[in-house]
Design brief:
The structure is a single chain. With 263 residues, the chain is an alpha/beta fold. It has 2 domains: 198 residues, Alpha-Beta Complex (2-enoyl-CoA Hydratase, Chain A, domain 1), CATH 3.90.226; 56 residues. The strands form 2 sheets. A 6-stranded mixed β-sheet has the order 1-2-3-5-7-10, with helices on both faces. A 4-stranded mixed β-sheet has the order 4-6-8-9. A hairpin with a 2-residue loop joins strand 1 and strand 2. Helix 1 packs parallel to helix 2, helix 2 packs parallel to helix 3 and helix 3 crosses helix 4. It starts with 9 loop residues before the first strand and ends in an 11-residue tail after the last helix.
């Protein structure tokens, strides 16, 4: 992984098989801007290409904020792509990343910050954490990951309630409605996040990758289906007797020997 000084808005650290990406703009509520989104995307992409990381934790710097959405001050004044905050690139990267991504919500998760934890595979939250969607109060909305996946998590009526009423939701209430997986006392948060990440890291990486891809395939269209097929194909093609014999027979222009398929 790149060393921390190469990033200006995030911190990246390793703890054995755990890679932690920390949103590091605490004086701005850990809001993401163009630079942060590009850096998160780069760190996630880099983690795809190495084998020692088995699970990724995404959290916020400080004690008060996980992330309270996005800033648009770096956007160019254009209707073209440079004028678009590249947040969907990050959401998509998390969903299709082969390694599990855990959101460790250490404070307010508001707007795009709420969507950010929703797209992660698991969410563990401090008891003092707060969740909220505020888009319509500001004339804004998320008509993609922040609605579709939220509905899958908590149901249509509750998803509409979050978007229409924009009320603050406590961590305990978030757990009750299925918005998060676990809520832990603030003083135990760091230890509990590490314990959860290590438990995931002990599982079979190929199995986790296949399960994650399979769950994403329902909403991923052709990309989701292709990812499932590709992830299942490569271990079969490279490591099974059946595939090795079929390939050898094809190259040798001979009939494959079925007796070798199950060795």
């Amino acid at each position: 992984m790149p060393t921390e000084p190469e990033y200006s808005t995030i911190l990246v650290s390793e703890d054995g098989p755990i890679l932690t990406i920390t949103l590091n703009r605490p004086d701005h509520g850990n809001m993401f801007n163009v630079t942060m989104l590009r850096e998160i995307h780069a760190a996630l992409e880099e983690s795809r290409r190495e084998t020692h990381t088995r699970v990724i934790v995404l959290t916020g710097s400080g004690e008060r904020f996980f992330c309270i959405g996005g800033e648009k001050d770096q956007l160019e004044d254009t209707l073209g792509y440079p004028g678009v905050l590249p947040v969907v690139d990050v959401y998509s990267m998390i969903e299709r990343h082969p390694k599990p991504v855990i959101a460790a919500v250490n404070g307010y998760a508001v707007g795009g910050g709420n969507v950010l934890h929703v797209v992660c595979d698991l969410t563990i939250a401090k008891r003092s954490a707060v969740f909220r969607q505020v888009g319509p109060m500001m004339g804004s909305y998320d008509a993609g990951y922040g609605t579709w996946m939220l509905e899958d998590l908590i149901g249509r009526k509750r998803a509409k309630e979050m978007w229409f009423l924009n009320e603050k939701i406590s961590a305990d209430r978030a757990y009750e409605i299925g918005l998060v997986n676990r809520v832990v006392d603030d003083e135990a948060f760091t230890d509990e996040v590490r314990a959860m990440a290590l438990a995931v890291a002990e599982r079979g990486s190929h199995a986790l990758r296949a399960v994650k891809a399979s769950l994403a395939a329902r909403t991923g269209g052709v990309e989701g289906l292709s990812r499932v097929a590709n992830d299942l194909l490569m271990p079969y093609y490279l490591h099974t007797d059946e595939a090795q014999e079929l390939s050898a027979a094809f190259r040798g222009k001979r009939t494959p020997d079925p007796e070798r398929f199950n060795h």
